[in-house]
Design goal:
The complex is a heterodimer. By secondary structure, chain A is mostly helical. Chain A has one domain: Methane Monooxygenase Hydroxylase, Chain G, domain 1 (Up-down Bundle), CATH 1.20.58. Chain A contains 8 helices and no strands. In chain A, helix 2 packs antiparallel against helix 5 and helix 3 packs antiparallel against helix 4. Chain A starts with a helix and ends in a 6-residue tail after the last helix. By secondary structure, chain B is α/β, with parallel strands linked by helices. Chain B is 34% helix and 25% strand. Chain B has 10 helices and 12 strands. In chain B, strand 11 and strand 12 form a beta hairpin. In chain B, helix 3 packs across helix 4 and helix 3 runs parallel beside helix 6. The interface between A and B is medium-sized, with 22 and 20 residues. Chain A: Belongs to the PhoU family.
Chain lengths: 242, 268
């Protein structure tokens, strides 16, 4: 890959201010990603431990995430208007603008999961198979998010490819859980409302996986300068062969 | 440093399906003992706008001037290699210099109208070719002025001195003066250098339109202008051709590290 190694070691801009602006945007995206990671971690904790005291924290953090999205987006607009970036600088700004939407929506999914989990507290579901399966799905989604943000931070093509491939596994696990929940609904119709709630939570986690895949596709665009969306390319590439 | 492949990197299949109207082969140029162009092999595709970009002193103007043999007018200059127009060497016996310059016209950074009327400025080249009668000249003059979108502005003042026109109009007049000879290729050396932003944009719009009927080679240090106007772009540095690519790729995902440094405004 010609770009990845070279472009992480580019010379500084003649305008130091411009370098600072780009670095600031990059740093803020990672900080925003960190907030969303926390949001997801809390949602999973409520889901698995039934600790509902964390709700207020989630609402406050969501406001921070939304504010970050607007601020970074506006900074990107300023850079486009004032600096007319080219090549890797342009790709960085475009990548960030696309990533923002997905990161923010991962935050939304996390909040949704947290709300569902709050509703399930006291349902005495501990130790049950679906809870364990949901927790497993949650860990996978969280790891994908961490991987996607790391891949962006380090412009790590191999990691981005790896995360994209993991999306298949999370999809498979989601389908298994869906079968399990459908089964339980059939056997115990009284439990349908509760199992449906779990189904929504599982669906949200599966969506988090999809959005992490999107993030990694943007990272590949940033590194390679080629759009890999909808090509099936990234999924079929073997990261170990890179 | 990036990998020293050859002294140029050209994306494969870049010019597929296009006529290669001008080609340089191993072109080098010296002024006295100073070498200003190093072994440049560049293809100019027909009916497209090709931008030559690079910092000051990178050899853009010198390379342009080699294409129509203007460089040989500089005392002490020496050229190696070939410039081919439709496959024929421009320095060969088949092409006298004035014929090369008729086929490969040039527009300079500053508008340089002759101290003549608007009409006579445009008609100048045809008069040199021996056309004397106004009725033979009227139609081509009007056509050339229309081609540069100047006719409507100057139709009422054709006999007034060209120097009374605004700078943007003067530059379009210079282009009309070149176009009337129906050149195959038009070389433009920083044609918007002396123009205000509005006139520059009008000139760029004109270049895009002209690019469809004749081949344009545009030397510019204005990267945004090159990005807006050209179909292909060639990056020169220190008299060496670093990269040729389609403009979209060169400005979003260049092949060479040096190009990346230049288009993103980094220290090279």
């Amino acid at each position: 890959m010609p770009m990845s190694t070279e472009h992480t070691h580019l010379n500084p801009h003649i305008s130091r201010q411009f370098s600072n602006e780009l670095e600031d945007v990059r740093r803020k995206v990672l900080a925003m990603g960190g907030l969303v990671e926390e949001q997801l971690a809390v949602a999973l904790r409520v889901l698995t431990d039934g600790d509902a005291r964390l709700g207020a924290e989630v609402t406050a953090r969501e406001e921070q995430i939304n504010a970050a999205e607007i601020e970074i987006d506006s900074q990107c607009t300023q850079i486009l208007a004032r600096r007319q970036p080219a090549a890797s600088d342009l790709r960085l700004v475009l990548t960030v603008m696309k990533m923002l939407g997905d990161i923010e929506r991962i935050g939304d999914e996390a909040k949704r999961i947290e709300r569902i989990a709050e509703g399930l507290v006291g349902e005495d579901s501990h130790g049950e198979e679906p809870t364990a399966a949901l927790a497993g799905l949650g860990v996978q989604a969280r790891d994908m998010l961490r991987g996607a943000l790391d891949a962006f931070a380090r412009l790590d093509e191999r990691l981005a490819l790896d995360v994209i491939r993991r999306d298949r596994r999370i999809d498979a696990r989601y389908r298994d859980l869906l079968a399990l929940l459908t089964d339980r609904m059939r056997q115990t119709p009284d439990a349908i409302p509760r199992e449906l709630e779990r189904l929504w939570a599982a669906r949200s986690l599966e969506r988090v996986g999809d959005r992490c895949k999107n993030l990694c596709e943007y990272v590949l665009y940033l590194v390679r300068g080629k759009d890999v969306r909808h090509t099936g390319l990234a999924r079929n590439e073997d990261p170990a062969a890179e | 440093m990036s990998t020293p492949l050859t002294n140029t990197t050209v994306a494969p299949r870049l010019f597929d399906g296009l006529e290669r109207i001008v080609e340089t082969q191993g072109l080098s140029l010296w002024y006295e003992t100073r070498q200003v162009i190093h072994d440049v092999s560049l293809t100019i595709p027909a009916g497209r706008v090709t931008a030559l970009i690079g910092p000051s002193g990178s050899g853009k103007t010198s390379l342009l001037r080699c294409l129509n043999r203007l460089s040989q007018e500089v005392p002490g200059s020496r050229m190696h290699g070939e410039v081919l127009l439709r496959g024929v060497p421009v320095r060969g016996a088949d092409w006298p210099a004035h014929e090369v310059r008729r086929r490969i016209g040039m527009v300079f950074p500053r508008p340089n109208p002759f101290p003549l009327s608007v009409y006579e400025n445009v008609a100048y080249g045809l008069r040199l070719l021996g056309l004397r009668r106004r009725r033979d000249l009227d139609a081509p003059v009007e056509e050339a002025l229309r081609a540069v979108a100047l006719w409507d502005e100057v139709a009422a003042q054709l006999d007034e001195p060209a120097l009374t026109l605004a700078p943007g109009q003067q530059q379009r007049l210079a282009i009309a003066r070149a176009l009337i000879l129906q050149p195959d290729v038009l070389l433009m050396d920083e044609p918007a250098a002396a123009l205000d932003p509005q006139s520059s944009l009008r000139l760029e719009e004109l270049l895009r339109q002209l690019g469809r009927r004749c081949t344009i080679v545009l030397a510019t240090h204005n990267l945004q202008q090159a990005a807006r106007v050209s179909d292909f772009a060639a990056f020169l540095n220190d008299g060496r051709l670093i990269e040729v690519n389609d403009t979209d790729t060169l400005f979003t995902n260049p092949l060479r590290r040096e190009t990346e440094d230049y288009v993103t405004g980094r220290y090279g």
